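Here is one chain, start to finish.
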Amino acid sequence: MKKHSLLSVLYATLLLSSSLLAQEYFDKKIDGHFSDSLYDIVQDYDGDISAIGYSQNFKRQQTPVQSYNNPYDYLDTLSNNLGEQMRLIKLDERAEITIDKSMALNRFNKAVSLVKTPDNGYYIGGYTQDGELIILRLGSDGSPKFIKFFGTKNFDRMHKLVPLHDGGILAVGSSITSRSFSDDIFEGGLGLNDIFITRFSLNGKKLWSKKYGTTMDDRGIDATEAYDGTILVLSSADDKKTRQLTLMRLSENGDKIWLKKYGKEGVVNPHSIITLKDNHFLVNASHYSHKEGNRIQLVKFDLQRNIIDERTIVTKNPTLLHDIKEQVNGSFIAVGRSKTSMNTNAFAMKLNSKLHPLWKREFASDATQEFNAVHILQNSQYAIVGESTPANSENTDMWITKLNSDGSSALALPSGSIYDALCEEFKVEISKEIIKINQDLSIELNAGYLHFETGKFKLNKPQEKFISGFTPRLLKAISPFQSNISNLKINGHTSSEWKSKNFETRYLKNLELSSKRSLCVSNALFTSALSSKDKKYLSQILSADAQSFREPILVTNKEENREKSRRVGLRIVLKK
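Its structure:
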């Protein structure tokens, strides 16, 4: 009996250890047949994330010998499982795949863009290899609602699907010039390519298609809708020596209002455009030179095509950004790639509202990696997609990862996680909005009585009562995971005001005040631990950090909520 009991204990210990060491971080590589990639990502209404891209499978099947006059007739005869196919991937919060769906069209095709529909379904935009554009609508479970093939009689490519305020979508891309004024959608342009824009209604009805161009080679890259319903289209125009970005404003019906060219000597590659919360527009581009490689170029415009701000961001290695998004507090998250002399690394960067970098992270490894798109999640984490090619391999894998707001890798939520344990323990307080527990294991104290008065740092009676009851329950919830926890951070915060208007004085005085607040809460946590064993454990993981006013709580129009900003928050940090 003793031997049996001992074996049972050892087995249970091994099971617990294996569950704790299961996939800690939300980082998923999806191995495909040959060459796979993900180009866009959204968050579903259930909190999961969905991404779109394509997979390649060139494994040949035996087919009868037959002659073809047109190569595309031959491609149509191939199996639906052969060649490039659109592929939708959905992951839950545990980084487990819940939907993996290939579109299986008869022709080679790629998906480049993904937009959510009001019914939690998807609009997917892409194109076939023989130059036809595709709009595909799927239900929330990935089932097809309809598919539309459209475009000109020439060779077309889609680059972006853009959601519009009326629920419709805009398809942005390029089309080889028709060279014929009899083409009813031709508006000028004798270059190799012209910008091609198509607008669809909410139910998928095509409202209009138009082409725009110059004698140069024009390519539609991206677009965004302004507050007045007009549309800003980002494109490139190049000849054999230079490439410029072009910004064009269209009416709701696609009529050109104005056009502006921007570019330095050499090659300027536009990548994306977004509408900012102040109703200006941010263009993300890169300036290429043979000497320096790619350098990040960010340009801020207003609706009258005036340049409000422009910045060149220099990094250690040549870098470009494929995607950039603005957060509620006015900061930005951007992703792309960084090129070293030996390899290509995925790259992520956060910037403040003035477009100054707050942090940069380069994902250096033996693999060749690149980020293509980023989405800001409801919990302020970042979901990112791209591709990864392992060293000494020709097979490129789909890559989905999550980062926290500070650039650290985000945790997945395996069954029986610390997050689940905390949510279960404090479910009453969460339901009453007294506290909030985030997936990055940060704990926000939201109730008004848990905030501090102006200039105060000592705990009042309600705060002391809360901490004395909170601490034993917190230690109970994390007890099974102690070997996995490296730190329990107590972060003190302040609002931004101070009697002195001098910035340096305001910052330093608030830094001192936030330090005192975090120390007082840390002291209360420690003293309210019920046993000497708990106190010893807290002494190993507890730390007090001062944040001053650098992370204020914001409300509408970026105004600071000073009362909520005067707070202390907690965060559990796991071992790497």
